[in-house]
Amino acid sequence: MKRPLRKDLEPIAASFTVKELVEPHFDPNWHFHPHYQLFLVEEGTGTRFIGDSIKPFGPGDLVFLGPNLPHLWRSDQVYFNRQLEPGQTKKPLVAKGIVVYFSADFLGNDFFEKQEMGQLRQLLNHSRRGLEWTGPTRVRAQASLLEMTRLPVGFGRVLRLLTLLDELSLATDYRFLTSPGYINTVKVSETDRMQLVHEYVLSHFPDDLSLETVADLAGMTPPAFCRYFKARANKTFSEFVSEVRVGHACKLLLHGQLNITQVSYESGFRTLSNFNRQFKEITGQTPSGYVKTYRQF
């Protein structure tokens, strides 16, 4: 049986959920749920899909999502390859993270409407576009989340969460993830179709993707599929594929094992000029400029 797109978390007696994930790979399903979600990647690499945002992720990635914002942390393919070669003893890769879930009324119906909660209320509103933090805030948040996983269920853990949210609301080193005005238009009944499209692109983006093949996979004509995808993803199918390819290229560039021409080919681009143009359109930088920027940190 295929999993539904919308997730309903298991009910708990506590006011919110915090747990440390240790899995072979992160959940590969594109989904959304009615809870706020704060997620920190401790170990693992891959591509992060949030609304209409596509970016690579790695250790230290810190994101806060509002309710019903579709998301997927897709681990790199090596995390799905569990079989070792004969005689190979290398330890299997694992994906680790800390996740916090809470509902809008986890402290009561009107708690965040009080005068003192103005800054936190703004944070919650901003999270509906998805937020990520960098720099010192991310480091402090990681320590707070680790502490939270070790605290017993009680007032101390609630206080730690509120303190962390307050710190995040005052920080300035954040970025919005989705485009202004992004709205989740995906319906639960369309789960299988969107899931098939995501899985196909993520498995075949280095190859020459055929619009006809993808449309057929979705059970639609190419023109109908293009209209459908644009309405659901807030971007064209070709833009989606380009962002997936550029996201993969970003990871290869930062690994530093391939030159730019090799990275271009491995990411699915057939000409270097097209790669350079698409890369700059999506990231705002040239491939070489991107590497220089991120190696400063």
Automatic annotation (TrEMBL):
Residues 195-293 form the HTH araC/xylS-type domain. Keywords: DNA-binding, Transcription, Transcription regulation. InterPro entries: Cupin_2, Homeodomain-like_sf, HTH_AraC, HTH_AraC-typ_CS, RmlC-like_jellyroll, RmlC_Cupin_sf. SMART domains: HTH_ARAC. GO terms for molecular function: DNA-binding transcription factor activity; sequence-specific DNA binding. The keyword Isomerase does not apply. This is AraC family transcriptional regulator. It comes from Spirosoma taeanense. The lineage of its organism: Bacteria, Pseudomonadati, Bacteroidota, Cytophagia, Cytophagales.
